[in-house]
């Protein structure tokens, strides 16, 4: 059985629909949590990562922090080194939101504060081979600049939304998200953030519940495309 390492940067960002589809495609998941729940509000932990090259796929997930924050440099720097090592070894990596921003940083791009942060279901124009055009769930305040040599495969008016570089796929949105995951975010500061952004958390949850089956299908399609074209 093939092995997939899932890097959970915090305790409320599980692999969701993405992990579900990886398991359906025959991958055994190993979950590695970076910031444990008691340190959620003090995330400057020291981490010893497993060797990324010992796995068939590595999935760095989202996080509520900025990749460039000095507060989390203690574990971002070694993770960037592991991502470069995985790339050199040809290990496929789908990076999700924060994980995609890590890929951009690791391979010569950059990440900075976005003038157009996105929260909720946002329209994305994709290549439709790997990333379907339409609404994807977003929750980000930063955006990347593309590394040299990438193929950008998705964007919208706010930010680049997806790129491929060798066997790396970066997406700015959250294909893994379902209602339970969104509830976890809302319970850990997201409720107030959504209101400050002008959104009604109850309506955000209602739309997420109503569209759960479609979101699951689209996430599975994305995972299938990644596995079929980059693995």
C-alpha Rg (nearest Å): 16 Å
- Write down the CATH topology: Rossmann fold
The neighbouring-strand order within the major sheet is 4-9-8-7-5-6
Report the helical percentage. Answer: 25-40%
Helical segment count:
6
Q: What's the domain count?
A: 1
SSE string, helices as H and strands as E = EHEEHEHEEEEEHHH
Helix vs. strand class: alpha/beta
Describe it.
This protein is an alpha/beta fold and 231 residues long. The protein has a single domain, classed as Class I glutamine amidotransferase (GATase) domain (Rossmann fold), CATH 3.40.50.880. Helix content is 35%, strand content 29%. The strands form 2 sheets. A 6-stranded mixed sheet has the order 4-9-8-7-5-6, with helices on both faces. Helix 1 packs across helix 6 (212-230), helix 2 packs across helix 3 (98-106) and helix 4 (179-196) packs antiparallel against helix 5. It starts with a strand and ends with a helix. The model has no long low-confidence stretch (mean pLDDT 97).
Describe the structure using short key phrases.
231 residues; alpha/beta; Rossmann fold; 6-stranded mixed sheet; 3-stranded parallel sheet; globular
Give the arrangement of secondary structure elements.
Layout: E1 2-8, H1 16-24, E2 27-33, E3 57-60, H2 73-89, E4 93-96, H3 98-106, E5 110-126, E6 134-145, E7 151-155, E8 160-165, E9 168-171, H4 179-196, H5 201-210, H6 212-230
Parallel strand pairs: 1-2, 1-3, 4-9
Antiparallel strand pairs: 5-6, 5-7, 7-8, 8-9
